[in-house]
C-alpha cells in the first residue's frame, strides 16, 4: 500500500510539471540509462577479465632482428605448442604506431580434442583496439594454439607480442551511447500512451513543424549513411578518398567510382559537344563482331588483348549500337543535374550528390502526399501514426539501398519515384484547390517525365483512373469548358514528353520506342532474350514473398537463396527477401477486406487495390525484362507500403480509444522497429557490404561495437 501511494505521488508530481520540464527530465533520464548501459553492459568483457593474469607467448614464437613477431602472406601461420593452461582470450598486440587489418583464424587443441580444430575467423583492425582481443571458449585446458593470418592486403605484419588471458581494456564509446540514447528516445516518443497519438495531423501549423524536424533528421541520416561507403562518393579530401585528393584543395571531385558508373557524367560532356553518343571509341574487334552482345564470345576476344578483367577492354554496361556507345538509362537526370553543372563549372557532378538530392525530394514528397491523403480521407489521423507511416514506407521502399550505394544505377529509379510521388501530390491537391488546373498540369508533367527517367513508373499514372473518374464523370452530368481545360492539361504533358523521348530514341537507335536497353553490353544477350512467362513466378516469389535469411553473426542477415528450376537465360543478384515478408507493417494487408468494408470510401479502396495490382505487375515486368536485381525493388516496393499505410489509417480511424487502440499502436511500433532494424542491417550484409575493403577501420569498429560481448 505504501509503495502504491508513493507511485501515485510521483505520478501526480510528474503530471504537475510543465511539458518542457517533463521533456528535460525525460532526456536526462534517457542519457543516464544510456550511460549506465554503455558502462556496465557494453563493457562486460572488461569486467569479466579484470581478475585475469595475462601470459605472454612471445617466447614460443620466432622473432626478427628487432625482436618482433613477423608474419608475411607466404608465412602466415604461427603454432604455439605446450601452453597447457585455461585460455579465455588471445591478444594480438601490434607494434606501436603500426596499422594492420587482417582476418585471424584460431585453431586449438584442448582437453576434449587432441588434434587442432578450427574456430570461426574474426576480423582484426589494429586501429580498433577491441578487435585485437579475441575471446575463446575451449573445452578445458588449452594445449596448443595455431594462428592463421589472411586478407593481409599483401603486406607483412609485425607484432610486439601475443598474450593469452589478457585484461580487456575499458572503453566508453560515446557514439554508441548517443545512438542508444536516440533509440530509447524514439521508443519513448512513440510509446502507445504518447501525446503524439492524441495530436491530430490536421491541427493548425502542425505539418510545418513536422516538415522542418523530419527533413533535418532525414538529411543527416541520408548523408551520414551515404558517406560511409566512400566508393560511391566522387569527393576527395585529405582524410576521405585521399587517393583522389590533390594535396592542396579542401575538396576535389575525384571520379573514384568505376568507369561504367560514370555514364551520366560522360553523357553530359557528350551533350555539351553536340553528340548523343559517348566520346569513348569502341575497340575495332568489338566493331567487327557478328554479335557483340554474345557475352562469352565478347569476353574471349577481350581476354586476347591481355587485360586481367575482360570488361576493361570495352565499355561494360553501356549500350552499343553501330559503332558507338550510348547510355540506355533515362536521360532526364542528365538534363536536370549533370549537364547544367558541367556547363556552369566544366566539372562532373558527383553522382552521390544527385542521389542525396533525389532522396530528400522523395522524403519531402512522401510526407506531403501522406499529409494530403490524411486531409482528404482521414481527418482523425494522428501525428504519431503519420510519422511512423512516413518512416515505414520510406525504409521499405528500397530507397535506403540508394543511401549506401549512391551509384548511377539507382538514380533513374529514385528520381522517377520522387517525380511520381510529387505528381500524385499535385493531382490530389487539385481535387479541392482553387488552382485546380495548375495543380493538374504540374502533377501530369511530373508523372509524364518518368518516361524520360524510368519508363516502368508510367504505370503509376493509372491512379488517375479512379481519381479523375470522380472529377470528370461522377457527379458531373455535362462536359464544361473547365472540364475540357483540365482534361487537356492532364493529357498534354504525356504527349509532349512522349514526343521528346521518341525523338531521342529515334535519333540514336532508329526507333521511337527503343530506349537501347536491349543493346546493353552486359551478362547476357538482351537482343535475343525474348519473353518467357516462366520467369514471372520466380520474380513474384523473389521480389514479394521470399523469406529472409538469418544468422547469429553480425549483421545477422544473409542473402536470400534464389535457387530455381527455370531452365533458361536470366540474371540475378543477391536479394534480401520479398517486400511483403521483410516489412512486417505490410502484414496488415491480411485484414484488407474488413478494413475497407468499414471505411466505405471508393477512392481509398481503389487506391489500395490498384497499389497491390500495380506492385505485382511491375515486379513481374522487372523480372521478365531485367532479371532479379535488388535495386529494382525501388520500382514497386512503395506501392505495397502505400497500400498498407492506407489500411493502417483506416484501422486507426475505426479503433476506439482505450486498450484496443493502445495495443494496435504497440503492434505498429514493433512492426516499424523490426522493419527499420532489418533494412538497416542489410547495409552491412554480404551482397552490399564494401566497408571491409573500402573503410575497414569503420567496419570493424561497428562490428565490435555491436558484438560487444565478444
Strand content: 5-15%
Amount of helix: 40-55%
**Structure annotation, total helices:** 24
**Number of E-type strands:** 16
What is the subunit arrangement here?
single chain
* Unreliable stretches: none
Mean model confidence by pLDDT: 86
Shape: globular
Radius of gyration: 29 Å
Distance between the termini: 45 Å
The major beta sheet can be summarized as: 5 strands, antiparallel
Structural class: alpha+beta
Structure description:
It is a single chain. By secondary structure, the chain is of the alpha+beta class. Helix content is 48%, strand content 10%. The chain has 24 helices and 16 strands. The chain has helices spanning 2-16, 19-40, 44-48, 174-189, 206-228, 263-272, 284-287, 295-303, 332-345, 351-377, 383-396, 399-404, 411-431, 436-448, 464-472, 481-509, 535-545, 579-582, 592-599, 602-625, 633-654, 659-681, 691-694, 696-706; strands spanning 55-56, 69-71, 77-80, 89-94, 101-110, 113-118, 122-125, 133-135, 142-150, 157-164, 235-236, 252-253, 319-321, 324-326, 549-550, 557-558. The strands form 5 sheets. Strands 1, 2, 4, 8 and 10 form a 5-stranded antiparallel β-sheet that branches. Strand 15 (549-550) and strand 16 (557-558) form a beta hairpin. Helix 5 (206-228) packs antiparallel against helix 10 (351-377), helix 6 (263-272) packs across helix 9 (332-345) and helix 19 packs across helix 21. The model has no long low-confidence stretch (mean pLDDT 86).
